[in-house]
Write a structure and sequence with these properties.
CATH topology of the domain at 261-420: Serine Threonine Protein Phosphatase 5, Tetratricopeptide repeat
Strand content: under 5%
CATH architecture of the domain at 261-420: Alpha Horseshoe
Distance between the termini: 108 Å
Number of helices: 32
Shape: elongated
Oligomer: single chain
Radius of gyration: 40 Å
Structural class: mainly alpha
Largest sheet: 2 strands, antiparallel
């Protein structure tokens, strides 16, 4: 008996499910037919199907949605109004239907009736936040400013003074009513802090319109008095976006003075200034951080940022040269002091005092080794204080640097020892370093020390050993080959007088590394006087001209460059003459004449193309 009832129940449920599924399929089929008719512009046919479906299925949401869409799309507003009012009889608290009814009246030019419906909705849904939010969009869409103001007033009386401030702000912003948009955003910030990021992005986007900038600045400056914690960073970021970097820094300092301090935001600000190449303000910002932070981690990051700011202002001089005159890109002829810098001496001095004093406050920071290293770089490359830089590099070495930094420090200590004239100490350190770390960079430094100290024979042996140990694709391979060619060419084994002259040349290079430029010039002058016809002499003249240019003795440099015209360095000498005329004497016609001489008289020179391109740039600038 029980099984019989169970079978009947299962049969009934199955039958109902099948009928329900069939019914749903019938509705979907009818909807597809109506949509097809609509696409064929048979609106009446589609409407007849939708209406019939609605009568039979008054609660089917798909049917209701299709009917509403058809009435709106084909502007059948009167029929739509009747339909929506019928809907409201069945569902009087349906907010969407209520709002849409008002919209249909409005679209049917029944403005007064539309406003009446919407106003009635405020009374009916007085305590429903969703109604207010939806109506902000509606009033905004149809430019009903008075009605929007009334809606906001009522809503804020019920839900509080910040209700819909963000939504109203975005509405006014879209209408380019910037003063009202700012009022709404600032009112939101005054009471509600959850949307600070969104509001800040909106304000910055608003400032893309030039007409808005003055309004925004005035509003933020006034608001910063009452709400400095939230408004001053916005004001600073706006100034930054407008490239008013000093004003941005002032706003951040005012923010800090009110007792608000966020190290992460300050570090981002200082780093962004450095990226924008606003070096003076960046240095001030890093120094401000260093004076106010209590975090050793932040001190370390700020010190590194400060060092990078100085380093960013150091540009190798050869990068401004039209051609590589003197093995400019060969690592064995790199000159760490041949740089241009725009660093303010006052900023550098003040910053280094702070930098130096704070190093001792970082006993446990992993950044300490790099901080010492970077300070040593400034002392070595910019200030050329070799004793001070050596002490800093040695301190960095004692602070457990990682392998990569350890290698950089070792290399730089060797450079300092060379600069101090302590080549033997450099070799001892290299030999010890090569026992502990068989690194390619140390092998290259070993070759350099032997080369600079006037020992070409051992240099050649070391070069051969290194070339045999590295693949041709290695970046240093070409530099080693070039150095080998120089030694073979200018240090012939069967001509002791040439060898003696070459040692004078090497001594001049050592003096350059020791920042003794005038003495290097004298050494080269002595070499040339000994034998003007020696093969090394033309190279020595070119090197002397470049060094004279470096110490701003342009007339002397020009004379030497011009004296190279009957030598194998003729094309280099002519181009150097042109650059001296162009960059330092302001005589562009003479510069162009020198460059044109290369094209006309030295067509086989490897420098023809860069010179031709440079001439074109000059002519375009003049036109």
């Amino acid at each position: 008996m029980n099984n019989t009832y169970l079978y009947i129940l299962i049969y009934s449920l199955t039958s109902y499910s099948l009928l329900s599924a069939q019914h749903k399929q019938n509705i979907n089929a009818a909807l597809k037919t109506a949509q097809m008719l609509e696409r064929r512009n048979d609106v009446e046919g589609a409407l007849a199907i939708y209406s019939d479906l609605y009568i039979k299925n008054p609660r089917n949401h798909s049917v209701i949605r299709q009917l509403r869409t058809l009435y709106r799309k084909h502007r059948k507003y009167e029929e739509g109004i009747i339909f929506l009012r019928t809907q409201l009889k069945n569902q009087p608290n349906d907010i969407q239907t209520y709002i849409e009814l008002g919209e249909f009246h409005f679209l049917n030019d029944e403005i007064k009736e539309a406003k009446s419906v919407w106003a009635g909705g405020i009374n009916q849904f007085r305590n429903n936040r969703s109604y207010y939010r939806m109506m902000v969009s509606i009033y905004g869409r149809y430019n009903l400013d008075k009605e929007l103001d009334r809606l906001l007033t009522i809503g804020r009386e019920i839900f509080g003074p910040t209700f819909l401030t963000y939504e109203a702000g975005t509405f006014y912003q879209s209408r380019q009513v910037y003063d009202k948009a700012m009022d709404e955003y600032l009112l939101n910030l005054k009471m509600d802090h959850q949307r600070i990021g969104m509001i800040q992005r909106n304000i910055l986007n608003m400032s893309d319109d030039r007409d808005a900038i003055e309004i925004i600045l005035n509003k933020l400056e006034k608001a910063s008095i009452d709400k400095p914690k939230f408004v001053l960073p916005m004001l600073a970021d706006l100034h930054f976006k407008q490239q008013n970097y000093v004003q941005a820094f002032t706003a951040y300092k005012t923010w800090a003075a009110t007792g608000h301090w966020k190290e992460k935001k300050w570090m981002t600000f200082a780093n962004d200034l450095r990226k924008e190449r606003e070096y003076i303000v960046a240095i001030d910002a890093y120094n401000f951080i260093l004076k106010h932070t209590t975090s050793s981690e932040t001190v370390g990051k700020a010190l590194l940022g400060l060092a990078k700011t100085f380093e960013d202002q150091v540009v190798p001089i050869h990068k401004s040269n039209l051609i590589p005159y003197f093995f400019d890109q060969n690592l064995f002829f790199e000159d760490p002091f041949q740089i241009n810098t725009t660093i303010s001496p006052v900023h550098l001095e003040n910053s280094l005092e702070i930098y130096d004093s704070l190093l001792y406050s970082l006993p446990g920071s992993h950044l300490l080794a790099e901080a010492y290293f970077r300070l040593g770089e400034i002392q070595y490359r910019i200030l050329q204080d070799f004793d001070r830089s050596l002490g800093l590099f040695e301190s960095a070495l004692r602070k457990n640097p990682n392998d990569l930094l350890n290698k950089k420090i070792m290399i730089r200590i060797i450079d300092v020892l060379i600069a101090q004239g302590k080549s033997e100490n450099a070799l001892k350190l290299l030999n010890k370093g090569l026992k502990d770390h068989n690194q390619r960079a140390l092998h290259q430094k070993q070759i350099l020390v032997h080369f600079l100290t006037g020992d070409p024979d051992s240099t050649l042996i070391l070069i051969e050993a290194e070339l045999n140990s590295i693949p041709p694709a290695e970046p240093s391979f070409n530099d080693l080959m070039e150095l080998k060619d120089i030694l073979i060419q200018y240090y012939p084994k069967d001509r002791p007088e040439e060898q003696k002259l070459f040692r004078h040349f090497l001594n001049a290079e050592l003096l350059v590394r020791q920042r003794k430029t005038s003495e290097a010039i004298e050494e080269l002058h002595f070499l040339i006087e000994q034998n003007p016809d020696a093969e090394i002499s033309s190279l020595a003249i070119l090197r002397q001209a470049l060094l004279l240019q470096r110490i701003q003795r342009y007339d002397d440099a020009l004379l030497l460059a011009q004296s190279l015209e009957e030598t194998k360095m003729a094309d280099r000498g002519i181009i150097l003459s042109g650059q001296i005329y162009e960059l330092y004497m302001g005589e562009m016609e003479k510069a162009l004449a020198a460059y044109m001489k290369i094209l006309n008289e030295y067509p086989s020179s490897i420098f023809v193309e860069p010179v031709r391109y440079h001439i074109r740039k000059i002519q375009q600038a003049k036109s």
